[in-house]
Design a protein that fits this description.
mainly alpha, 83 residues, single chain
């Protein structure tokens, strides 16, 4: 069974949600498109991941050439081991 919600309760909730949307839009900046910003961030993350993957390949090759572990290369170059 679904509980009935009064018209007044629905209108109050709609007003609350609209106020939240307005506040978030103000934080984002007037005229800014949130979807556009998200898409730009996704593109930047893809570029970052591609650069990181290429770097890891080079570190792996360097480790092979020096006949040491990738972990040791990270340690020698003061690079973080994880993400």
């Amino acid at each position: 069974m679904h509980a009935r919600v009064s018209q007044q309760t629905q209108e109050a909730r709609i007003s609350e949600l609209q106020a939240e949307v307005d506040q978030l839009q103000h934080q984002l900046g007037q005229g800014e498109d949130a979807e556009k910003i998200v898409n730009q961030h996704i593109k930047l993350l893809h570029r970052y991941n591609e650069a990181k993957d290429a770097t890891q390949i080079l570190i792996g090759r360097l480790a092979n050439l020096k006949e040491i572990t990738v972990r040791q290369i990270h340690k020698d170059l003061e690079l973080p081991i994880g993400d």
